[in-house]
Specification:
It is a single chain. By secondary structure, the protein is of the alpha+beta class. The protein has one domain: Beta-grasp domain (Ubiquitin-like (UB roll)). It has helices at residues 8-14, 30-40, 80-83, and strands spanning 2-5, 20-22, 60-64, 67-68, 89-93. Strand 3 and strand 4 (67-68) form a beta hairpin. It is globular and about 35 Å long. The chain starts with a strand and ends in a 5-residue tail after the last strand.
């Protein structure tokens, strides 16, 4: 099971509290996690990635094991500690403004 932490506004939209646990088939990739998340919580479709281009939304970032994975290829394997559920996969709403 992969542990996913969502930002507050997406947790509210999906009506979940705390971490989300997802069953993801091997190999665990960013796309596989997002596919599983959108399958379990259809209300999140289009909020994290564009449903036409499949690209990450501009103010959404992905982190795993203290590393920014936002610009990694979507089919690259996630770290083993994420795939094994030892560490959470973080989806963060980026901050902007002045």
């Amino acid at each position: 099971m992969i542990r996913v932490l969502l930002p507050y506004h997406l947790r509210t939209l999906a009506r979940v509290e705390g971490e989300v646990l997802l069953e993801v088939k091997s190999p665990a990739t960013l796309n596989a996690v997002l596919d599983a998340l959108e399958t379990c919580y259809p209300v999140l479709r289009g909020t994290i990635r564009d449903q036409t281009t499949w690209r990450r939304r501009p103010f959404v970032r992905f982190f795993a094991c203290k590393e920014d994975l936002s610009h990694h290829p979507p089919n690259a394997a996630l770290p083993d500690t994420i795939a094994l559920g030892e560490e959470p996969f973080l989806i963060i709403g980026a901050m902007a403004g002045g």
